[in-house]
Structures are given as C-alpha cells and as structure tokens.
Design brief:
It contains 17 helices and 27 strands. It has a 9-stranded mixed beta sheet, sandwiched between helices. A 5-stranded parallel beta sheet has the order 4-3-5-8-9, with helices on both faces. A 4-stranded antiparallel beta sheet has the order 19-20-21-22, with no helix packed on it. The chain folds into 2 domains: about 400 residues, Rossmann fold, CATH 3.40.50; about 110 residues, 2-Layer Sandwich (GMP Synthetase, Chain A, domain 3), CATH 3.30.300. It starts with 14 loop residues before the first helix and ends with a helix. Helix 3 crosses helix 4, helix 7 packs across helix 9 and helix 11 runs parallel beside helix 12. The protein is globular, with a radius of gyration of 23 Å. With about 550 residues, it is of the alpha/beta class. Bound molecules: adenosine monophosphate (AMP) and 2,3-dihydroxy-benzoic acid (DBH).
Length: about 550
C-alpha cells in the first residue's frame, strides 16, 4: 500500500517577530529534553511526581523517559514520527511524554475520555505511526480501542500498552534501556515539540503544533505569575493531557521549577483532599463545576487543607457569585485563568484586589501578547465595550496542522488568532469573558462542537434533522441539548445515547438532554443558518422553561 508522504510539522512566525521574541528573552532556545536532563542532574533525588501509590524522583523520571525513548526507537519508530498518547493521571503519562521528547518523536495528546471516533481522527490527521495507551483507566479497557484502531488505520505501525497484560500489543514495560539509541543532540528549539488538541468549534478537533521555545516560555512566565518554585506541590485532578493542567503553569511549569506534581485519578473531593493532606499540596487548578463542588465539601472535611496557597479556576467562565462561593469554601487565594491550547493565557495576579479577582478572567501573560477586541467588521470597539477577541504573540500559534479550511477561518491575514470569544477589556487590560461567537458548548471546561454532535445524530435512521445547542446548567455551566425532528417513530433517548456511545464517541459529547420537535421554524425567506436556528431554539426553550417554572411557583 502506498502511504502518502508525512506532512512536515511547523509553526512559523515572521522573521521580525522571531527576532523580537528572542531579543525580549522570551525564546531562549530551551528544549524539553535539555530541561529534563538539567533538572535530573541538579535535583535528582527530589520528588518530581507522586500519585496515590507511586513516587518518582527527578532521576527516576529521566530514567523512565530514557528507557521508553530507547524502547520506541528500537521498535523502529523514526525521528519526527507522531505518536498518539492516551494516558490518564498516572506518573507514566510524563514518562511517556518525556520519552517521546527524548527520542525526537512527537506526542499527540488525546484525553482518556476519547474513543475510536476521536482517536481515529487524531491518527489520520497527524499521520501517526504509533499509539500508546494504558491497559485500563476509569473502567475502560483501551486494548479494545487499540484493536479497532489497528483494524481501521493500517498506517499505524505500533501499538504500545502500559499495564500488566498488553495482550497482542507491545508491552511498555518490556522496554529496555539503551543509551546508544538515543539522539545526542537537542532538537531545534523552534521545531514542533508536540500536537495539542483543540476543543473544536466547528466540526472535528484540530491539531495544535506547539514549539519548544514558545511553550516553555508560556509556562516559565506562568511560574513567575503564579509563584511556582521548587517548594510548590501542585495537584492535578483535571485530565493531565489538558492544556491547562499541563502548562498554566501545570505539570510542565512545576517540573521546570523543580517542584512536585501530585496526580489525582479521582475528581471526588474526599479523594483529592486525602492527597492534599498527605502531600501538603500548595496549588491546584480546577474547572468551575469542580471548584464549586470542592468548595462545598471543604468546610466539612476532616482532612487538613491548610497547606493550600492558590486555587486556580479556568477552562470555563467563573461567574462573580461562583467566585465568591469558591473563596468562602476554600479560604485560600483564588486565581482566575482564561486560556486556550492555541496559546494566549490570562491570569488574575496574586496581588490583584478582590474586585478584579471576582469580576475578571485576568490579563495576558506577556507584554507582547497583542490583544484586539473588534466588532463584526473587524474594527476595534470602544474601551470597555464587548467584542470578538483576536490575539497574536510569542506563544500563540499562527496555524493549525494540516487544516487549510480551519486556518483560513481562524486566522486573520496579519496572523491574529480569532479566539471565538466575546470579551470586554478594561483600561488596565483585564479581560472579562461575555460569551462567544462560535457554536461550541463549554461543558464543564470540555469544548464540544455542536456541528460534530449533529453530524453523528444525523447518521441515525430515526433522526430526520437535528440542532445541538448549549443550555445554561447550574452544575456544568452548560449542558448539551439536542433538538430532534424524528423520522417516523421517535427513538428512545436512552437508546439513542447508547447508540452514540457504540459509535465510539467520547462520553462528554453525548447530549445531556433530548427534545423532540415537529419542525424547525424557518425565517420568512424559508432559509436559515444553523447558527441562527440554534440561537432561536435556545431562546425559545429557555422562555418556555422560565414560564413553566413561574406557573409552578405561585
Ligand atoms: P481550546 O481552544 O479548546 O483550548 O479552548 C479554549 C476556550 O475555552 C477559550 O477560547 C474559551 O472559550 C474557553 N475558556 C477557557 N478558560 C476560560 C475562562 N476562564 N472563562 C471563560 N472561558 C474560558
Ligand atoms: O480551556 C482551556 O483550554 C484553558 C484554560 C486555562 C487552557 O488551555 C489554559 C488555561 O492553558
């Protein structure tokens, strides 16, 4: 079979920007392999990563990564090959990620919740040569997924499974150290280190190429803003592969600083509180629904949480009222984080007044983050008015990988990324997120494309037409609601959801609510855009809901 040539990976800023970012000291030529080796040499016996039953020093992290690198190269993977990794919150996640860096291979970060539909897409889009997963995580057997993947993607040459029983696949634990196989030179700091996944606003997730230089700058500068040092012990309860717990400042920031990453598999407050007490956790990052849940549990716990210094909340909008509740429950400092895997990250600062922390999503990391707030025609709005957020800067990408259509839509001619967010900017440069321009659903921090879910539902024989809409939700922030015009007999919602799961779709994309309708009202012209239709359905639904709650409570 002829395999098409591997598309090169690149992330390129114009020369004058490169010169500027270097001169300003943002891009210092650092790389992932070099930073890990330096930390292991200097801080070898310090704890790098702990979870409920493992404890790895910096020396052990390097040793593990070197063994994995050698094992992967011995299999025949070649420098520059892409490898999809799907590993939950266990130390091995970082063993594999750094192993790939040391080998000159390129990780593509999937989430544990992804299933064959998403993983197949990542493998094809990145032209991956390998897939590495845990045997089991969260009651799911990834060997089943690996089998489907191998049957479906003949170009995927290697499947590696971490766990006691790799079945017919290569066991990660069979890898042997072999220093002679490892590249001796560090990679080009401007080369692409890995592919991060976008939440996806239209259609399928896009792949985000990030360079050593740009990404390391983003977490080095985050460390400074967030006060991360060698003494920091940072709890990760969100999926480790997410950009927020990876880099804002996340695990990469903490390892860069020589601190300790504490991994929780569970998002249940009591489980996490046990780890906070045992490891004397100082910092943690959560999405708003979890922050609220934990804040409610914190005053009642018998665990000692007094080591906590900063609680970061991001990934979705934290309302002022929710921010107050989080502060009241935790009694540590709150930091709002508004970021995106494409780049730009905003933080409220640790010395900001309460008003700013309660009411804004922070300001950008870098003095060279350029931020524009514009109207429908691309013209800047007046100070304090709402508009679309566009940005470019020293750690914001100029393009997605292998996706001309998305690039044409998502970037302006002069290289600004259209974030799709609607914001207001204060005179001091702080941003408050007001909403968004694109039809994605932000469900507890997971971004889900309405269009992608619609496409799946349209494949069902009893679905004539469908519109997928975000509905405000007290717990999730937003939930997924599918308005369906049935074809013939109405499908039963549980059966429909089961059918979607069987198609191999991440569980967080399956609608929380299904509403059957007879028809979609069209405009006078009889033509309507999907976007308008979704907006109309949402408004109508919310109006009916508030009317029925009014009649229910006299
Ligand atoms: P992604 O591009 O998939 O990494 O998702 C990033 C998007 O998440 C942003 O463009 C926002 O829409 C949303 N987001 C992240 N953090 C926040 C926050 N603190 N408040 C509101 N929205 C957020
Ligand atoms: O939601 C995000 O993608 C996000 C949130 C906070 C992010 O990528 C980040 C910080 O870096």
């Amino acid at each position: 079979m002829n395999t098409p040539p591997l598309l090169p990976l690149h992330q390129t800023w114009p020369d004058d920007f490169v010169a500027r970012y270097r001169a300003a000291g943002y891009w210092r030529g650092e790389t992932f392999p070099a930073f890990l080796r330096e930390r292991a040499a200097r801080l070898g016996e310090r704890t790098a990563i702990v979870d409920i039953d493992q404890r790895w020093t910096y020396a052990q992290l390097l040793e593990r990564a070197e063994t994995i690198a050698a094992g992967l190269l011995a299999l025949g993977l070649q420098r520059g090959d892409r490898v999809v990794i799907q590993i939950g919150n266990v130390p091995e996640f970082y063993g594999v990620a750094f192993g790939l860096f040391l080998a000159g291979l390129v990780p593509v970060y999937a989430l544990p919740a992804h299933r064959i539909t998403e993983i197949g897409h990542f493998v094809r889009k990145s032209q991956a040569a390998g897939y590495i997963a845990l045997q089991h995580y969260d009651n799911f057997d990834y060997r089943t997924l690996a089998r489907e993947l191998q049957a479906q993607e003949p170009a995927l040459r290697h499947v590696v499974i971490a766990g006691e029983d790799a079945a017919e696949f290569t066991p990660l634990h069979s890898f042997q150290p072999n220093p002679a196989l490892l590249p001796t030179e560090n990679p080009d700091p401007q080369s692409v280190a890995f592919l991060q996944i976008s939440g996806g606003s239209t259609g399928l997730s896009k792949l985000i190429p990030r360079t050593h230089d740009d990404y390391i700058y983003s977490f080095r500068a985050s460390n400074e803003i967030c006060g991360i040092t060698e003494d920091s012990r940072y709890l990760i309860a969100l999926p480790a592969a997410h950009n927020f717990p990876m880099s804002s400042p996340g695990a990469m920031g903490v390892l860069y600083a020589g601190g300790t990453v504490v991994l929780s598999r569970s998002t249940l407050p009591e489980k996490a509180f046990e780890l906070i007490e045992r490891e004397r956790v100082t910092d943690l990052g959560l999405v708003p629904p979890l922050a609220l849940l934990w804040a409610q549990a914190a005053p009642q716990t018998a665990r000692n949480l007094s080591s906590l210094r900063v609680l970061q909340v991001g990934g979705a909008k934290l309302t002022t009222e929710a921010a107050r509740r989080v502060i009241a429950g935790f009694r540590c400092q709150l930091q709002q984080v508004f970021g995106m895997a494409e780049g730009l990250v905003n933080y409220t600062r640790l010395d900001d007044g309460e008003d700013t922390v309660l009411n804004t999503q922070g300001r950008p990391i870098s003095p060279d983050d350029e931020v524009l707030v514009v109207d429908d025609h691309g013209n800047p709005v007046a100070q304090g008015q709402s508009g679309y957020l566009l940005t470019r800067g020293p750690y914001t990408i100029r393009g997605y990988h292998n996706d001309d259509t998305a690039n044409a839509r998502s970037f302006t001619d002069d290289g600004f990324y259209r974030t799709g967010d609607v914001v207001q900017r204060s005179a001091q440069g702080y941003l408050t997120v007001q909403g968004r321009a694109t039809d994605h659903i932000n469900r507890a921090g997971e971004k889900i494309s309405a269009e992608e879910v619609e496409d799946h539902l349209l494949a069902h024989p009893q679905v004539f037409d469908v519109a997928v809409v975000s509905i405000p939700d007290d717990f999730l922030g937003e939930r997924i609601c599918a308005f369906i015009i049935p074809r013939g007999e109405k499908p039963k919602p549980p059966a429909l959801k089961g059918w979607m799961r069987e198609r191999g779709l991440a569980a967080f994309k399956i609608p929380d609510q299904i509403v059957f309708v007879d028809a979609f009202e069209t405009t006078a012209v009889g033509k309507t855009s999907r976007k308008e239709l979704r907006a109309r359905l949402r408004t109508e639904f919310l109006r009916e809901q508030s009317q029925s709650s009014k009649t229910a409570t006299p």
